[in-house]
Structure formats: structure tokens, C-alpha cells
Description:
Blueprint: H1 9-13, E1 29-30, E2 33-34, H2 46-60, E3 70-76, E4 79-84, E5 87-91, E6 94-96, E7 103-104, E8 118-121, E9 135-139, H3 143-154, E10 159-162, E11 172-173, E12 176-177, H4 178-184, H5 198-202, H6 220-226, E13 229-231, E14 234-238, E15 241-244, H7 248-272, E16 297-299, E17 305-310, E18 314-315, E19 321-322, E20 334-335, E21 338-339, E22 344-346, H8 363-378
Parallel strand pairs: 3-19, 6-22, 8-17, 9-10, 9-17, 10-13
Antiparallel strand pairs: 1-2, 3-4, 4-5, 7-18, 11-12, 14-15, 15-16, 20-21
Amino acid sequence: MLERGEVANSWRTERWDSLRLLTPNWQSRLPGVCYEGADADGYMTSAEVVELIARFAAYAGAPVRTETSVTSVRCTDGGYRITTSQGELESRAVVVASGACNQPTYPAFAHTLPPEIEQLTAFSYRNPSQLPDGGVLVVGASATGVQLAAELRSSGRPVTLSVGEHVRLPRTYRGRDVLWWMEAAGIWGQRYDEVDDLVRARRLPSPQLVGTPERVTLDLNALADMGVELVGRWAAARDGRALFSGGLRNVFALADLKLERLLDVFDEWALTNPEAEDVAAPERLAPTQVPPSARLQADLRSGEFGAIVWATGFQPDYGWLDVPVVDAKGHLRHEGGVVDSPGLYALGLPVLRRRNSTFICGIEDDAREVIDHLHAYLNGGPRAEL
């Protein structure tokens, strides 16, 4: 196993200070290793995630080569040649487990914005104190965006949040964590070949959730109550001005509709499953409130904003993969983790084999099936069924 830094490197070096997992502690489990603390319904800090992964590495006894960056993987007659910062390796098979969040994404017009405004991404942001004086424009309303908007607003700064497509979820529903419902009702376990629109499912933004001791729901209504200004999707930049779309009402209505449908699924499941005997009565969230007059532009040269935080998602980095298996949009071509090149596999990508593929608690089942296929390949037998 090759790791460019230390074990759990990205959790050590690429997370903001206050970040906690979105999944409750009881869901933070790996084969043979699980949460052992006193707060099973809490949410791990970055440091606690590092400890969990390090504990699993020791338990598994895998031969991890740390401080070893892969610079190239190329096909050979018998498999692959892997070039690293510590030399070359030959292998009949390779598992790409570098994840889908290697590089933050932001629009091309970011390079044209006034230079006096500091720009950060979720990789470079650590805490409010590092930002210059003035308001902050947070772009993106998935989990990262809403968390950073709330933290910055709580620090006393004026915050404007640019909202595009998003997934709205309550932190708890009928007395249980919403992710308990996702797991118990079988939604997280849905296989990739059962999903109607797999391409869309793999590119959905992360849900609006935050892990706090208070188990609060952090949706757009909560942010508005805190004093965060909501504007539409940042569509363009022109002459030092940010231009926002005017479709907030439709964006909010779509997110609310999807939430209602999901809660209906939970309620229907609860009617026939004994696991739900002690849950509270069905409930519904108030609709997302549309601002009475959301502005359509902002003058970035006026001094209103001292910083912009891009929370517009991430993309994988396959610049080191010298095998023709990456599509025009930079995504790996694979079928349930079996990449379009003999002996090449992937793990840890969105909806790789199930909807929970990118969560710590979802990797075991994916890995078991992918490795079964790899084992059959190495032994020259018939291709395993995935």
C-alpha cells in the first residue's frame, strides 16, 4: 500500500479545524475496528478520524509505505509499472484508492476577480481568524458550504451564501439520526446497478448536514435565522461584479420536494419494520423560506467582501495514471470498481457499488466484492460476477 504522506494523510493536512464527520460515531466502523468511546451518537473530530484509521492500519497489519508519492502508473506486458518517489514497482494488478476529492473545483472566472479579495477553498481554509477583515462570500451550499457559512457568521462576520442545487436533510428525524434511517431503510445499501440515473447519483452534492454535540439541523432556514444572506448560484463575473441567478425559488422547491419524498420512504418503511417500533411520530420540516428580495449581483470592488470561500466541490486527480481509462470530464471509467483495463480496480468513489461507498462504514462491502474479482483475475479463473 502506497501513501503519499502519513497514514490518514488527508485527514491530517486537508481539513479545517472544526470539522467533524457527518456520520454518527456508531457508524464509524472498519473491519475489526469500531468506535470505542462513550458518545456513540456523537461525531468524530478530524483528530479522532486519524486515530481510527491509524488503529485500523495497525490492526490490519497492511504493509503501508508512507511518504511515497505515485508519479506514474503505466501498462506493461504483465501488468503495470508504478513509478514512485521511492523507486519503481511492478505489479499484475493495481487498486486505485486515491479518492474523488483530491482537487477543489471552482469556476474559471475565479482568476478574473479583483486581486484585493482573498480566495480560499475548503483545502486552504482552517478557521475564521485567517481571513481578512470584511464580509465573506461563500460559494456552494452542500455540507461544506453550509458549515463554513455558519462558522464564519458565528465569528461575527457578515456572510453571503451563493446557493445552487443542494440536498436538504434534517440532522434527526423522528428521534433518530437521519443516517440511521438511511441505513436501516436500505437506501444506503442500494446497489449501483439499481440506481436509475447512475451518472447523476455519482455527482450529487453532499447533503446539508453538520455533526455537532447538539445534533442541530443546519439547513438554509437555520442559516437565514443566523443572519446569513442567501443569493442564487454564481453564474458569471463581469467588470468586477458577481452575477447571481434568479432561480432561488425553484431551487428551494426542488430540494424540499426531494426531502419530502425521502421522508415518505422512511415513514413507509417504519410501518412494517420492528426496528422502528420506538421511533417518534412522523414529522415534516417547514419549507425553505425564499428571501423577499434576493439580490442578483454584488460589486466585488466595493469593499463589502474581504474573502471568497469556494465550497463548489472537488474532483479526482488522475494526472499520474498513464492508462487510457479517464473520460473527458476527468472521471475514471469503471463498472462497479472494475476499471476499463485488465487488472486495474478502484475503491472509494461515489456510488462505486452502493450509495454509501464514500463513507467509512460503506467501504467494507465494496472492498470485499472488488477484491473477490481481483482474486479471480490473479488466479486466471473466470471473471467474478459483480
